[in-house]
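TA notes, week 10

Several of you asked for a full example with nothing omitted. So below is the full record: structure tokens for the whole chain, then the designed sequence directly under it. When grading your own attempts, check the secondary structure regions first.
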């Protein structure tokens, strides 16, 4: 695997397989209460410019379970938050730490950090991508469905970081992805273009969620207002009407379709309570898998 995990494009097919294999093993060891302190004495810095529940806890607990420690570095408290340049921060942090996880706004900032850092850098979400989440989502699909090969995944809603990450994964892996986004809220155009050109099983973009969801094996959605977009809330609530994942929409998917969401969810907005809390939803297992998958990523990179 490459030094960093900044984008799904950092992963080759065998890297995906290696991560899933390790995650399976680490999950089993944890379940059986067996020790797996493979990162004894290692340290992970976690830079957060945005809020987090799952990412912070799963990285921190994962590091602890593997015998290392994780440091929570909020931009409110580090000099990075006061304008110390990325190049200096990355080079200096590389002298103290064994790895860095960054959650911030700009993908370019994470890439710049990784260029200067001599230790592995893991993208814990940017405005553009959320690779750790997509890996956990795929791992969850493998657990529930035995694999993702030949499946149809429907992504309904905002063409945001999750949509972009789904497209990047579809560019390499053999599942079909159909997205439905309202006009003006499409995924990143460069990512979409490359995904459509490279995806072995195809990527489609639609306006009508009913078309995207038709016969889907997985119905995926995410919030209509991502972190940093709070000022657009009113406009977005209007523009996303008709893109809610509700029972009527779900009925167009396969009978045994799974419902997924990276969380946090807004019941009554992008998804109804009936669906996210219903029998087809796997969102809690999906969230749990962040822990196992990120432990696998850290075991490999650190
Ligand atoms: N899905 C996800 O990344 O959750 P958090 O924002 O809580 O980390
Ligand atoms: N699209 C959401 C994902 C949160 C995990 C956001 O960026 O806020």
């Amino acid at each position: 695997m490459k030094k960093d995990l900044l984008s799904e494009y950092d992963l080759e097919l065998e890297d995906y397989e290696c991560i899933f294999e390790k995650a399976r093993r680490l999950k089993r060891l944890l379940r059986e209460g067996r020790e797996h302190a493979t990162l004894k004495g290692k340290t992970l810095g976690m830079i957060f410019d945005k809020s987090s529940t799952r990412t912070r806890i799963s990285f921190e607990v994962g590091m602890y379970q593997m015998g290392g420690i994780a440091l929570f570095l909020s931009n409110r408290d580090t000099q990075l938050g006061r304008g110390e340049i990325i190049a200096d921060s990355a080079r200096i942090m590389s002298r103290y730490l064994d790895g860095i996880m960054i959650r911030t706004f700009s993908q370019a900032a994470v890439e710049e950090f990784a260029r200067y850092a001599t230790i592995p850098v893991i993208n814990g979400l940017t405005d553009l991508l959320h690779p750790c989440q997509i890996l956990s989502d795929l791992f969850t699909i493998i657990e529930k469905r035995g694999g993702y090969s030949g499946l149809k995944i429907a992504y309904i809603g905002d063409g945001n970081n999750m949509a972009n990450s789904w497209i990047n994964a579809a560019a390499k892996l053999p599942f079909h992805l159909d997205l439905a986004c309202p006009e003006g809220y499409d995924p990143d155009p460069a990512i979409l273009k490359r995904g459509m050109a490279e995806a072995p099983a195809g990527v489609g973009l639609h306006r009508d969620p009913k078309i995207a969801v038709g016969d889907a094996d997985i119905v995926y959605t995410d919030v209509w207002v991502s972190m940093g977009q709070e000022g657009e809330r009113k406009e977005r609530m209007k523009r996303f009407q008709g893109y809610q994942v509700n029972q009527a929409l779900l009925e167009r998917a396969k009978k045994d379709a799974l419902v997924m969401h990276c969380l946090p969810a807004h019941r009554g907005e992008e998804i109804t309570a009936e669906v996210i809390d219903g029998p087809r939803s796997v969102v809690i297992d999906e969230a749990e898998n962040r822990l196992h998958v990120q432990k696998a990523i850290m075991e490999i990179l650190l």
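The longest strand covers residues 43-48. Use that as a sanity check on your answer.
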